[in-house]
Amino acid sequence: MRRRFALALGLLLTLSMGLAPATGLRPFTWPTIHYLTKNLHGQVLDFTHNHWGDHRIWSNALCEKRDLYVYLPPCYDPCRKYPAMIYMHGVAQDEVGFLRLVELFDQAIVCGKLPPMIIAGPDGSVKGRPSATSAGSFWINSKAGCFEDYVIQDVWGFVTKNFSVRPEPECHVLAGASMGGFGAFNLGIKHRCQFKLVAGMFPALHLRYQDCHGRYFANYDPCCLGIRERLGPLKPVARFYGVITIREFQLSCPLYGHCNKDAINHIARENPYEMIDAYDLKPGELEMFAGYGKYDEFNIDAQVEAFVDKARAKGLEITCVCDPRGKHDTATGVRLFPHFCEWITPRLKCDSK
């Protein structure tokens, strides 16, 4: 039964994000990366074992090699300094998802809608490959591995050591979609001395969301807001096509194990909604962008709206864009992408020099 649920999770999420099913086989081969590099205005550097040879970076945090792609903008000049972004993928994906998005970033840079920047796309899968049975790391330190340390120390350290990155935190961006959007906000709040800009597409920002009647799928109402005090392993957290349900244990068990009575407390500590207070986030310390669809299958719309209200009540700066017909899918992300570009470009005043 659990395996069927897990397989459904992998299939649904990969289909909803416009990807091929996560079979464990890597769908990209050498001609594909060569095609991308040849047709982009910038270039993608391969630090993976997806193509010819093993070029992975070593992660001290995970005690193993990990895949990474790095995008360099057109006419990259190592004698100049550039803003840099870490882009974090979603559940049931790995670094290959970045290859499917890199053309959007490249085209935006060419058209002047984004400044030239360096973008790193690391692998945040639990097993080092897309897996339907191990949903995702959520980019945090947990039973699944020290993924927060991996991003902040290993990936960021590799990027800043090997490429010309501006030193100012105002030039450093954490971004992602779905699980990766959660990771951007979570890590951004914790490490705002290093990163001043965070952005998420349909990011999970209130992991303990429910209304005052205990309903997870309820629309956000500031006059009827509750908070979950315990996990329900079979509790639905997403519904696709009205018939298939994703359950809570599929996301929490890889991180905290089965029947962990303290799991809800771990989740509270990593919950961006609660981290606003726990980390005493102050105005001016972090600029935030959140885009989401009004019909998100995970009810991310309610989570984002609750987070935004709390942030603004504390005087925090956050830009929020809602796609009125959007869902938890690639099409919604593509429609929201121009809004992300409009938000981030004037903030990266540290354009390459």
Specify the overall morphology. globular
Ends: how far apart? 56 Å
Number of helical elements: 11
Tell me the CATH superfamily.
Alpha/Beta hydrolase fold, catalytic domain
Instruction: Specify Rg, calculated over alpha carbons.
Output: 19 Å
Helix and strand composition category: alpha/beta
Model regions low in confidence, pLDDT < 50 over at least 5 residues:
1-30
Class in CATH? Alpha Beta
CATH topology, anyone? Answer: Rossmann fold
What's the helix-strand series? HHEEEEEHHEEEHEHEEEEEHHHEHEH
Task: Assign the CATH architecture.
Answer: 3-Layer(aba) Sandwich
Multimeric status of the protein: single chain
Strand order of the largest sheet: 1-4-6-5-9-10-15-16
**Count of beta strands:** 16
Helix content range: 25-40%
Number of structurally distinct domains? 1
Main β sheet profile:
8 strands, mixed
Average pLDDT, rounded to a whole number, is 88
Portion of residues in beta strands equals 15-25%
